[in-house]
Amino acid sequence: MDAPLAAKSGHQGTAMSLAPLAHVLFSRVMRFDPSNPQWLNRDRFILSGGHASILQYAMLFLSGHGTGLDDIKQFRQWGSATPGHPEVGHTAGVEVTTGPLGQGFANAVGMAIAEAHLRATHGADAIEHHTYVVAGDGCLMEGISHEAASLAGHLKLDHLVCIFDDNKITIDGGTELTCSDDVAMRFRSYGWNVIDAGDPGDDLDAIEKAVRDAAAHKGQPTLIVLRTHIGYPSPDLTDHHTAHGNPFTAAHVSATKKVMGIPDEPFWAPEDLVSAYRAHVAERASSALKTWRTSIGGREQEVTEAVTSLAPHGWESSLPAFDADTNLATRQAFQKALEASRDALPGVISGAADLTGNTGAQLDGKNAFSATNNAGRQVYYGIREHA
Fold first, then answer.
1. Same domain, yes or no, for 276 and 327?
2. What's the CATH code of the domain at 184?
3. Distance in angstroms (rounded) separating the CA atoms of residues 176 and 167
4. Which of 165, 177, 288, 381 lies 20 to 30 Å from 278 when distance is taken between CA atoms?
5. 3-state per-residue secondary structure call for 46-105
6. What one-character-per-residue DSSP string does 107-124 give?
7. Range of the domain at 282
8. Structural domains of the chain, count
9. In this model, does residue 106 exceed pLDDT 90?
10. CB–CB of 321/343 below 8 Å?
11. What's the mean pLDDT in 354-365?
12. What pLDDT does 364 receive?
């Protein structure tokens, strides 16, 4: 609440209602190492509703990723480490730049495809992690979410978990103004497993059970329908659409802190609490790394280099050369270049929107990526052009 108040802009309502979920994910469920945010086998967290970025920054601060309290105080300020929407490569711990609703959801599907492919090619002893994406009503209204969800179900991406922040609120008002979809039924029709987590409020154990059940499910991606209350526990603005896009006033912040039983002082973050939280996260990270290193054996450096080396030195030498006056369409030249670089760039996966032949975007077409063959490098995603 304090950061949007200081910035005079921001979306604290969603961040407040999702705080219990974020706490469960970062302190109980997800495997990651704040001292090495690029650890190969970390679980991925994507906040598709990037406008609620203060939630992610708060968790990065608490978990010790390098985001400091001074960074939180500079929320949404020019040049700060905490911009209005999460930006990959700018803030340690942010996996995806999100902003336009639904985009992060589609990114999560792509990351789940990548995880499945790497698991198939390098072995589950080396690569096996989950992608957790939080998407709200707006994300799932966007057309891109329909395309991406359909593809994820078709490919049976069972290491993908989407938590649907079902708060039934948009900036203009309640979702009854614009949408009457049965989201759970919609996702079941895509081939997803659906868990109705109900309205758990602050019941952390119930939230954890839903997430762990989702992660353990095999053969399908999982949607968790989580009923939340935007702005909770504000005594004035809980479940009200003004809690969405408008920062609370100082009076609203004070009233909410009184309900929570915490001091009415800006950016209250007791050092002992923060230290204890970071120590707990570090202990979990140490345990996860130890388990992984035992599993992967002596292959850690080999696999890490193979996965992170996007373009090995000298790979260009594999490319064909064309004379300037060659009578060859650019898409045909692209096809030849793609095929020629196949072995030099093993991390490249190709695909086209039902125009593989026309575009030349075909890579090892006889070895398609599918629900039964995650090692394939050609994704047939049909006429899903936006996702």
1. no
2. 3.40.50.970
3. 12
4. 165
5. EECCHHHHHHHHHHHHHHCCCCCHHHHHCCCCCCCCCCCCCCCCCCCCCCCCCCCCCHHH
6. HHHHHHHHHHHHHHHH-T
7. 2-292
8. 2
9. yes
10. no
11. 83
12. 67
Q: What average pLDDT does the segment 170-176 reach?
A: 94
Residue 137 and residue 176: Cα distance in Å, rounded?
Answer: 11
Q: What is the pLDDT of residues 240-274, one digit of tens each?
A: 999 998 889 999 999 999 999 999 999 999 999 99
* Structural domain contains residue 302: no
Positive/negative CA dihedral, 78, 80, 82, 85:
positive
Q: Does 169 reside within a domain?
A: yes
| pLDDT of amino acid 343 | 86
Burial class (CB in 10 A: 0-12, 13-18, 19+), 335: buried
Q: What does pTM read for this prediction?
A: 0.96
CA proximity to 64, closest of 278, 269, 285, 274: 278
Is the same domain home to 326 and 228?
Answer: no
Tell me, yes or no, whether 237 and 336 share the same domain. no
Which DSSP state fits 159? T
For residue 83 the two structure tokens come to 């911009």
Residue 285's CB is within 10 A of a number of other CB atoms, namely 20
Q: What is the pLDDT of residue 342?
A: 86
Q: Which of 283, 302, 305, 385 is catalytic?
A: 385
| Side chain identity, residue 206 | A
385 carries an active-site annotation:
yes
Query: Residue 286 to residues 46, 58, 155, 217, 281: CA-CA distances in angstroms?
Result: 23, 22, 33, 26, 9
Does the structure show a pLDDT above 80 at 61?
Answer: yes
DSSP state of 167: -
